[in-house]
Design goal:
6-stranded parallel sheet
């Protein structure tokens, strides 16, 4: 009997969940997985299986790539805030008639003792800061720092943590901390203490790797400005864990 062809899966990656998904699928002989990375991080952690780096040229380019490589299933496992890529994935899946699944870790939920201020954008977050503190721990990544570079924020001091060095425009008074999670609770406590942080800004990325900063802020009574994540494109099914995504792939 002929051996069934392997299911070809394209994973739009760059997250811990994407790497764990690739690890699970790479050990299955009935699946051939390719992970696509945007190439924005200088030294990414490469997942197992095939890897491609760089953009596709919009939804039409992604659709053409999937047709050319006979992709059977597309999984959008990008960062919860990669809204443009998620929109492109939904449009490309429709153009190429390829099933699409979004893999999204659940967002964070405020607990007793938290002092959270929810906002819809980085610009809104920046506007809240003068009333909340003077020494800001900014953990929104190196993209979008222009929102905190306005003249109205010149009196504030920022500790900016990111994987790669940020580029201008940046806050006027800033120290950069190059680091990559996961982070420990003890380490986050010490960071807040050493830099005398009195307000934290974060995106609702979810997950455990960077959550200790929220616990440390709660313990210290520090307000947290949380930027809400954009919604998944309408009609796209969502898996909360890599295991759920693996089960979705096994239905093909």
């Amino acid at each position: 009997m002929p051996v069934p062809a392997a299911v070809r899966v394209l994973v739009l990656g760059g997250t811990t969940e994407a790497r764990r998904l690739a690890e699970s699928l790479a050990g299955d002989r009935s699946v051939r997985v390719t992970t696509s990375l945007a190439g924005r991080v200088a030294a990414p952690r490469l997942p197992p299986g095939e890897v491609r780096v760089g953009g596709f040229g919009g939804p039409e380019g992604l659709a053409a790539w999937m047709r050319e490589h006979d992709v059977d299933a597309l999984i959008d496992a990008t960062h919860p805030f990669a809204a443009a890529m998620s929109r492109n994935a939904a449009e490309a899946a429709a153009l190429a008639h390829v099933p699409l699944l979004a893999l999204r870790r659940p967002g964070w939920v405020a607990q007793d003792g938290d002092h959270w201020h929810s906002t819809g954008s980085l610009a809104e977050a920046a506007g809240l800061l003068p009333a909340l503190g003077e020494r800001v721990f900014l953990t929104t990544g190196r993209m979008g720092l222009a929102a905190f570079a306005g003249a109205g924020l010149d009196a504030l001091w920022f500790l900016v943590r990111s994987v790669d060095a940020p580029e201008p425009p940046c806050p006027a008074r800033m120290e950069v901390l190059l680091d990559r999670g996961p982070f420990t609770l003890e380490g986050e406590r010490e960071l807040l203490r050493r830099h005398r942080i009195d307000v934290l800004v974060t995106k609702d990325s979810g997950g455990d790797a960077t959550a200790p900063k929220l616990t440390a802020a709660r313990e210290a009574g520090i307000p947290v400005v949380v930027v809400r994540r954009p919604p998944v494109p309408e009609g796209v099914p969502v898996a909360a864990t890599p295991d759920e995504a693996v089960e979705w792939v096994r239905r093909f």
